[in-house]
Design goal:
The complex is a heterodimer of chains A (127) and B (390).
Chain A: E1 10-11, E2 16-21, E3 24-29, H1 31-37, E4 40-44, E5 51-52, E6 57-63, E7 67-71, E8 76-81, H2 84-87, H3 91-94, E9 103-107, H4 119-126
Antiparallel strand pairs in A: 1-2, 2-3, 3-9, 4-6, 5-8, 6-7, 8-9
Chain B: E1 4-5, H1 9-14, E2 18-22, E3 25-30, H2 34-43, E4 46-49, E5 56-59, H3 63-70, E6 82-89, E7 95-103, E8 112-115, H4 121-135, E9 140-143, E10 148-154, H5 158-165, E11 182-187, E12 190-195, E13 204-210, H6 214-220, E14 224-226, H7 228-238, H8 274-283, E15 287-294, E16 305-307, E17 336-345, E18 352-359, E19 368-373, E20 376-383
Parallel strand pairs in B: 1-3, 4-14
Antiparallel strand pairs in B: 2-3, 4-10, 5-8, 5-9, 6-7, 7-8, 10-13, 11-12, 12-13, 15-18, 15-20, 16-17, 16-19, 17-18, 19-20
Chain lengths: 127, 390
């Protein structure tokens, strides 16, 4: 099976992706992660304004089969959350890099982005 | 110990199924997606490989007597070609397993077949043999689990699909088979036992086929393959019990009255556990299995605590109300009153639902309870099952 792993994103080994957009960093889970989870039925994430530390838990995603913790790719303040997922959690399956995004972080230190796995490194990990 | 495998395992792997361990078997959990598979059964038809279910044949002059004394229902009431749901209980009335007992059609050489759950076939065969010796009954007990595949075809279109797959309807049109009726039919040149039974709440059939002919039979029943994931969401929507989870002789010992399956108990028959259950019925139960739905977002799962909602708001822990048992308070501030045994987000309703045991005073539909999810009490309400009209 082949998964979509966009080149321009940074990744954690725990399958979260991070994308830089106009000063903030958008965060979600990878195509591989959504496929492993199966039908997503619940997503829980922090409220806007909360401080997050890199690689600490920021929320939970649940499918019918499994409960999985979500980890923070870059430290910072939660600037926005994708509240559409509260009512339509299956967006994580349908469009993991688009409408299935989870939170937006105002990064405390932009250089942390460089520590994330590249698409190539992440692809090697899941293959 | 190596996991047991269905004769259809290679075919499932080739079709991209993912697998899970279940009752000592490696079985497909998902083929496409649990939601797609679930919807196919509710709306049209889907098929399940349930070869992990045991098949034990009982024949001989005392076959009915042996079965009647080891299951809670009235086996002597079965006509040829009919089946019944029953519990297997120990002398204390504790449920060991649940099963379907089939009296086979008259042309069949064997008198009875019964179907214990995954991984129970060995111990159940031993139980039958040792009681046969103890009671000096004349019956042959044979564990045929590895000789057969079992395929469930479920959904409103199941009868039409099966009728089309049956070669020569020698034993009659399967569409005319009554609920819990069982007959023989030829599918893909294989002699199969076809019963109008299932675990989904939909119309449907369970087909017992010779293991070496399982592949062609599976292919002939051409519809959406479904895994154990969808089997679980479908049965939870109906409030059907899962052996080893909603009851378990070691982890969660329950009587049929606690598990709310009194309909499967006939106290007018003599069986192991009968006297204990007669007393239990007189006494009444302290706890009972109920269905519930969350009023908040979340996913109830087996093992989560059910807590009292009145002191579950997290504030009561400081100024405890008179009479509240703070000693038993959990991190959420609510007294633990029970345990979730099954839970999911209902694909049909889009609501978080579950089954669990609560004190009898909480068992009435509409009663407010709460489920502790990661330390947070989530408001829930007892609801009558089935959650969905089958």
């Amino acid at each position: 099976m082949s998964f979509e792993i966009p080149d321009e994103l940074g990744y954690l080994t725990t399958h979260e992706w991070a994308r830089r957009e106009n000063g903030t960093v958008r965060v979600g889970v990878s195509d591989f992660a959504q496929d492993e989870l199966g039908d997503v039925v619940f997503v829980e994430f922090p409220e806007t304004g909360e401080e997050l530390t890199r690689e600490a838990e920021f929320g939970v995603v649940e499918s019918i089969k499994a409960v999985s913790d979500l980890y923070t790719p870059v430290s910072g303040t939660v600037a926005d959350t994708n509240d559409a997922l509260l009512d339509v959690p299956e967006l994580v399956n349908d469009d993991p890099y688009g409408e299935g995004w989870m939170i937006e972080v105002e990064p405390a230190d932009e250089s942390e982005f460089e520590d994330l796995l590249s698409a190539e490194e992440y692809r090697e990990q899941i293959e | 110990m190596a996991l047991r495998e269905s004769p259809l395992r290679a075919a499932h792997a080739a079709s991209g199924a993912t697998f899970t361990e279940f009752g000592g078997w490696e079985m497909p959990v998902e083929f496409e997606s649990i939601h797609t598979e679930h919807a196919s059964v509710r709306e049209s038809v889907g098929k399940f490989d349930v070869s992990h279910m045991g098949e034990i044949e009982v024949s001989g002059p005392d076959a009915a007597a042996l079965l009647d004394r080891l299951t809670t229902n009235d086996v002597t009431a079965l006509d040829p070609g009919t089946a019944q749901y029953a519990m297997i209980t120990d002398s204390r009335g504790t449920i060991l397993d649940d099963t379907v007992v089939y009296r086979l059609p008259e042309w069949h050489d064997t008198g009875y077949l019964f179907v214990p759950n995954a991984g129970h076939d060995g111990e159940t065969t031993t139980r039958w043999e040792s009681h046969r010796e103890e009671w000096a009954l004349d019956a042959t007990v044979e564990n045929r689990t590895d000789d057969y595949a079992m395929i469930a075809v479920q959904g409103p279109d199941a009868a039409a699909l099966l009728a089309g797959a049956v070669g020569d309807p020698g034993a009659g049109d399967v569409r005319e088979l009554p609920r819990f009726g069982t007959t023989g039919e030829t599918i893909a040149d294989a002699a199969c036992l076809v019963s109008r039974t299932g675990y989904t709440g939909e119309d449907g059939f369970e087909v017992v086929a010779p293991a070496r002919e399982a592949g062609p039979v599976w292919d002939a029943l051409d519809c959406q393959p479904c895994g154990l994931g969808a089997r679980d969401t479908l049965r939870i929507e109906m409030g059907f019990l899962l052996s080893g989870q909603d009851f378990d002789p070691e982890e969660n010992p329950r009587t049929p009255y606690e598990a709310d399956v009194a309909f499967a108990v006939d106290l007018g028959t003599e069986f192991v556990g009968r006297d204990a259950l007669a007393r239990a019925k007189d006494t009444g139960v302290a706890e009972r299995l109920v269905g519930f739905a969350l009023d908040e977002r979340g996913v109830p799962r087996a093992g989560y605590d059910i807590v009292d909602p009145d002191d579950a708001d997290g504030t009561i822990a400081d100024g405890a109300a008179p009479g509240s048992t703070t000693a038993e308070s959990t991190t959420v501030g609510g007294e633990v009153i029970g345990t979730v045994t099954s839970g999911t987000v209902s694909p049909t309703l889009g609501e978080p639902i579950g089954l669990g045991y609560v004190p009898i005073e909480y068992a009435k539909p509409g009663t407010e309870i709460a489920v502790a999810i990661r330390g947070e009490p989530k408001e829930a309400r007892v609801r009558a099952t089935p959650f969905v009209d089958g």
